[in-house]
Amino acid sequence: MKILKRFGSTAGLWTKDPLSNSEKIYVFDGTSNDTVYVFPRTREFTLFSATRKAARIKLPYPWVGTGHLVYGGYLYYIRRHGTFQVIKFSLTNKTIVDSSVFPAEEQIPVFGLASYNYIDLGADEEGIWAIYATQENEKNIALAKLDPTSLDIEQMWDTPCPRENAESAFVICGALYVVYNTRLPSRSRIQCTFDVSGSMASEDAAQVYFPKRYGSHSSMKYNPKERQIYAWDDGYQIIYRMEMKKKSDV
């Protein structure tokens, strides 16, 4: 675990593009805004005067929540305009290249401890995922695989992972890891795992505790290139380095 700095609001996200050779850091401050901060590399982000020197990307529409993603030169973010939309924004041309209404009815907040998140996008070694929840199966979290080019849903799964007391989640090698806490923030822990391939049962995965920190995670973005998680904890930006094992070894 490495604490980088304290920046911005209590909720937000910071991330990198796992498919790019660039070291740029993208920062979404807050749960509703239309401006993304861009820093050349981590070092510049950690400077005291970082915000004044950061580039800014003004988005055509504001985002909602902290479930956004930078992937392959595009910014994928969630817009709420009656329904929930996934917006695909080109970082090269600074224009929207595609958008799609997320095909789930009666959506509800995906994490019980984060009422602002209805869709949480993430990337792993296998592509792009969407973590969400609906009124139909209100007790548990659902997972979908997205085509990054067309934004089409390739497949959807109902998971056994409960929404109650969930604060965040991420996907690694096709397995969903859900992080839980308490309403009075305590020590976060991975308490439920769902592997889409079925090769790793949730009960076989060890319960993992994160070090005691400040509050609760508003976002946790896994970077498959670096094998580490960029987390936002009550306004603190934290990196968790992951030690990976083969699923057959779990």
Automatic annotation (TrEMBL):
GO terms for biological process: signal transduction. InterPro entries: Olfac-like_dom, Olfactomedin-like_domain. It is found in: Secreted. Residues 1-246 form the Olfactomedin-like domain. It holds the Pfam family OLF. GO terms for cellular component: extracellular space. Keywords: Coiled coil, Developmental protein, Disulfide bond, Glycoprotein, Secreted, Signal. Belongs to the OLFML3 family. This is Olfactomedin-like protein 3.
